[in-house]
Design goal:
about 500 residues; mainly beta; 3 domains; 19-stranded parallel sheet; 11-stranded parallel sheet
Length: about 500
């Protein structure tokens, strides 16, 4: 019996004897049929009907092709030949929606051609296992309406999913059952002004936004009441300038991932956050960037979240804002990345012009991040902790160059260790000169030590002195005092550690 596929037989060419079928050919064909049946899980013996019935049961989800009005002739011909759709350049969402609605209940793919699709109303995706796939965004740096696949949106859209999106959205995803899989990939959204939003995902699971570019939207995209969703390789440029507007919005959403999501604002005075998480838990931001927004990245009432190698720079206020908004912003981990050169708006309080601003939040861990200012020190603090914040840790960071201070802490149990530009540990030696009974030692710490923070040890004989003590702690010095003139110089080794 033949094996499949490595044992496929090679049939002899019978071009000179087309009416002659040899017994060996019959045997080889029978071996092939038997091998195919075995591969398909059938008994080795069986007839033609067995194979065809099994093959009929193997089905793949369909792919419906939609061609733009300015697509190539070949693309339009393919759409027509395969039962797809050809757009006319007016309200092209109609053809795209028809293609989505034509997919069976098991889902499928709507493939968009290259070219420009003119969107005048909302596209809705409610089925599971649906892919809406364009041909790519083209040059993601180009602030133009050109690209491989472009959705051009000239103004507000009529369909308004909620009060935040007053100008409507281009695509709405809201699964009605199953919580299967939806992906939107390879599309550039271009607006003439920030009058409408691009993608709104509501009460859904396993939704993927991949390789997208969004120019001048009111909101770029929002996950609302979702879980296990992912946005990867998304670039948002110059979103809406209203206080409620965000480039990215995760609301009441958990266990989701933002990976390589870049947001650039307009430095407008009331513009919202570049990336904003509200009431969301268990989310991860990885390699994300928010720049030239009013505030870069915000976590309000969001907990058990992590930021890995994220950046926020040149924002008007803080690069990263963490605040308890009634449901907690605890257990936030910030690892690596840079939150620098923020605070370019000198009209707000200095504390708000920080790399990271922590309000009423506990158990925030910041490690290995650059929190300084490399320019004219618009950023006033690397980290500013305020309110009831406590039990946080900032360690192994660089806070050089800030205008006012590296780090300010509010909580008694917050730990600040080993940060460049904000010394919390120092050591040295000082000499009490013969004829004196005290010496002021400059400690070089960024914070004022208190009782128990400084350890002193004489490194030679005390002479006539019988005891010593430490007193007069200040922001720059502490004092070593002996009970009487030692009669000779005495060297003291000291170490100061403020946790």
């Amino acid at each position: 019996m033949a094996t499949y596929p490595s044992g496929i037989k090679a049939f002899s060419d019978r071009t000179d004897q087309t009416d002659l079928v040899l017994a060996t050919d019959i045997n080889q064909a029978y071996d092939e049929i038997t091998a195919i049946q075995t591969e398909l899980g059938l008994l080795p013996k069986g007839g033609y009907a067995d194979v065809t019935a099994r093959l009929a049961g193997l089905s793949t989800a369909p792919c419906i092709f939609v061609a733009a009005s300015n697509a190539s002739a070949a693309a339009k011909a393919w759409a027509a030949a395969t039962g797809g759709y050809v757009c006319d350049g007016t309200a092209d969402e109609v053809e795209i929606q028809d293609a989505i609605d034509a997919l069976p209940a098991v889902g499928g793919t709507v493939m968009l051609s290259e070219g420009t699709f003119y969107i005048a109303a909302m596209i809705s995706i409610t089925i599971d296992n649906c892919l809406l796939v364009g041909q790519g965004t083209g040059d993601h740096q180009a602030l133009s309406y050109t690209g491989n696949t472009v959705f051009k949106i000239s103004g507000a859209l009529a369909d308004t999913p909620d009060a935040d999106h007053t100008g409507g959205v281009a695509i709405k995803v809201q699964q009605t059952s199953g919580y299967g899989y939806v992906e939107i990939r390879g599309i550039k959204f271009s607006h003439t002004s920030p009058a409408a939003s691009d993608i709104w995902v509501k009460s859904s699971k396993n939704v993927f936004l991949t390789d997208l570019m969004m120019l001048y939207p009111m909101f770029g995209f929002e996950f609302y009441d979702c879980s296990s969703c992912t946005a990867r390789n998304v670039w948002i440029r110059e979103f809406g300038t209203g206080a409620a507007h965000k480039g990215v919005y995760l609301r009441d959403t958990g266990d989701s991932l933002l990976d390589n999501v870049h947001v650039e604002g307009t430095l407008a005075s009331v513009e919202g956050y570049g990336i904003f998480l509200y009431g969301s838990a268990g989310n991860q931001l990885r390699h994300c960037w928010a720049a030239t927004c009013n505030r870069g990245i915000g976590l309000l009432g969001s907990y058990h979240c992590s930021l890995d190698d994220c950046w926020a720079d040149y924002n008007r206020q803080a690069g990263l804002w963490i605040e308890d908004y009634g449901v907690g912003s605890d257990h936030v981990r910030v690892s690596g990345g840079s939150f620098y050169n923020n605070g370019v708006n000198d009209g707000v309080a200095a504390a708000l012009r920080s790399g990271i601003y922590i309000v009423n939040s506990d158990e925030v861990l910041v490690t290995g991040s650059y929190l300084g200012d490399s320019g004219v020190a618009t950023q006033q603090y690397g980290v500013y902790e305020t309110g009831t914040s406590d039990n946080n840790m900032i360690a192994n960071c660089n806070t050089l160059g800030n205008g006012t201070a590296g780090i300010v802490k509010a909580g008694a149990s917050t730990i600040i260790r080993n940060n460049q530009g904000h010394a919390t540990e120092a050591s040295g030696t000082s000499t009490l000169v013969n004829g004196q009974t005290s010496i002021a030692v400059t400690h070089g710490l960024a914070v004022t030590p208190t009782i128990g923070d400084v350890m002193v040890t004489p490194v030679e004989s005390w002479g006539n002195a019988t005891k010593f003590w430490i007193s007069a702690y200040s922001s720059t010095t502490f004092t070593i005092t002996v009970d009487q003139d030692p009669g000779a110089d005495v060297d003291f080794a000291w170490r100061a550690v403020v946790l």
